[in-house]
Fold:
Amino acid sequence: MAPKAMNQAAIERLITERVNVAVEAERERQVNARGQGNNANEAGGQGGAPATRECTFSGFMKCNPTVFHGHKGAVELSR
Structure:
């Protein structure tokens, strides 16, 4: 038996529900990674994201980024 076709509203509802579940799971993961839910940071947990730091323009330029002139696509530039 073939699956029933979904209308656009049903698809959007499904996407919204799944995104909300994913966002909530990510928030819980971040709370746990900060050590508020367990001792993951003290135990050297691998599930947490690396610490972020602020990047200034001058700091970015010290990394010698590749010059992009807009003639080729980003994929071609990275090769």
The helical segments are 8-33, 57-61, 74-78. The CA atoms of residues 34 and 77 lie 37 Å apart. The chain has one domain: 8-78. The longest helix spans residues 8-33.
